[in-house]
Amino acid sequence: MAHLLVYLYKIKPEAKEKFLEISAKTNKKFQEYGGVTEQIFRLSPSSKNYGISLIPEKLDVKEEEELWIGLLRFQSEEHARITMEDFDSDEEVNELLNEFVAHVAPLDHILFGEFVSEHTTIKQ
């Protein structure tokens, strides 16, 4: 079953270019170690409410911040474990993390979670 690592980043708009630069470098490393895909999205303002809570409100995103999401996809939980062990022990990756924390967002502005697919989507 597919396995997904999800990162939510609260960053200032002026840090966007540095964020994307570091993300491109870490994505390259991620793929070198066997990761399937990494995708990054910026939360778009929405005029729709549907009467439900909005993500920026629940995550306390400040007016001067943007919310980004990073999705790292793996074939399985085991694949994620093996890939991330190698990725996390890479010296260049750790240097990029330090650069990220110093120039883009402190660790307390990043949320993380792992998700496992419970079923396979059927294509028609």
Structural summary, described in words:
The chain is an alpha+beta fold. The protein is built from 4 helices and 4 strands. The chain has helices spanning 16-32, 55-58, 77-88, 91-103, and strands at 3-11, 37-42, 66-74, 110-116. It has a 4-stranded antiparallel beta sheet with strand order 2-3-1-4. It starts with a strand and ends in an 8-residue tail after the last strand. The relative contact order is 0.31. The mean pLDDT is 91.
Q: How much helix is in the residues?
A: 25-40%
Q: Give the N-to-C terminal Cα separation.
A: 20 Å
Order of helices and strands: EHEHEHHE
**Poorly predicted parts:** none
Strand content: 25-35%
Spatial shape:
flat
Strand order of the largest sheet: 2-3-1-4
Strand runs, count: 4
The largest sheet, given as strand count, sense and whether it forms a barrel, is: 4 strands, antiparallel
List the total number of helices: 4
Radius of gyration from the CA trace? 16 Å
Average the pLDDT over all residues and give the rounded result.
91
Find the structural class using helix and strand composition. Answer: alpha+beta
